[in-house]
Amino acid sequence: MKYEEAMRQLQEIVRKMENDELDIDQMSEQLKHAQELIKLCRDKLTKTDEEIQKLLKEGK
Fold first, then answer.
1. At residue 59, does pLDDT exceed 80?
2. What's the distance, Cα to Cα, between the start and end of the chain in Å?
3. Is the overall model pTM greater than 0.90, yes or no?
């Protein structure tokens, strides 16, 4: 999954929560999914940062 898609899904989960569109069971399920999406985004950002730092060091 691309970073942008994960962020879109996270934004949709937040929107539903803010608008009280989820019952308790759905909220629990969506929060678990949100945690997975957050981890995926964090991992992608960390990997990208490491790659950028490596490229910057090689360019010196």
1. no
2. 33
3. no
